[in-house]
Write a structure and sequence with these properties.
The protein is α/β, with parallel strands linked by helices. The chain is built from seven helices and twelve strands. Strand 5 and strand 6 form a beta hairpin. The mean pLDDT is 83.
Length: 220
């Protein structure tokens, strides 16, 4: 057990409020539950149907997930063998072969399916069995403000919840905890990069020789 684990285990049980139940919020809930804390999550959507394709997991992220008991290899990870970057004109900017580097890292560099990567920590955080307190997940609960002095989250419907700690896991959404805490909201900026994720039917892959050569026959 690492020093951080020991410190968390020795601390008192905290009531933690997590705003948004995406991959980040749910993974935080898994880690906090593991150390005996009580977690309540607020998700603005109904979580009725998750969507998305591949999710990028570099070695450091993979190691954190594994530490929390989330193993991408159990739900169809794909090892990354290389990375290519293109200019907006279509010109190749970089072509990085990772086959020589992969064996040197403690954890692999993989792509995982976003839906499975979301469902796994959600189940680990909220299931009734297992160690610690099951996390409580409130859907259709959009956070609109937070009081940092009292660790209180106010929802769009006026309901308020208080705890010992509030975690904002809402990315660049409309939740304004930044303004409540700091008096201003950080402005998003263009990084100059875009990632396009898409899904291709298996039959379409087989009809083209180039992608067909990349497929692995799982029937044997």
């Amino acid at each position: 057990m690492g020093s951080v684990d020991k410190e968390l285990s020795a601390a008192k049980t905290l009531r933690v409020l997590v705003v948004r139940a995406g991959i980040g919020g749910l993974t935080a809930a898994v880690g906090l539950r593991k150390h005996g804390h009580e977690v309540t999550l607020f998700e603005r959507t109904e979580l009725a149907q998750e969507f998305g394709a591949a999710f990028h997991l570099p070695p450091n992220s993979y190691g954190i997930l594994k530490r929390f008991g989330i193993h991408p290899e159990l739900f169809g990870e794909t090892r990354v063998q290389g990375v290519r970057e293109y200019e907006y004109t279509g010109a190749l900017r970089a072509d990085i072969d990772l086959t020589a580097f992969n064996p040197t890292w403690q954890h692999p560099w993989v792509l995982a399916h976003r839906i499975r990567l979301h469902e796994t920590p959600k189940n680990l955080a909220t299931r009734k069995d297992g160690n610690g307190h099951p996390a409580v997940l409130h859907t259709s609960s959009r956070g609109v403000a937070v009081n940092p002095s009292t660790a209180t989250v106010t929802l769009e419907n006026g309901a308020q919840f208080s705890g010992d700690l509030v975690i904002g896991a809402d990315g660049v959404s409309v939740f304004d905890y930044q303004e409540s805490c700091h008096g201003h909201r950080s402005q998003a900026y263009d990084s100059g990069k875009s990632a396009f994720r898409f899904m291709i039917p298996h039959e379409a892959m087989l009809s083209n020789q180039l992608p067909k050569s990349l497929l692995v026959d799982t029937a044997t």
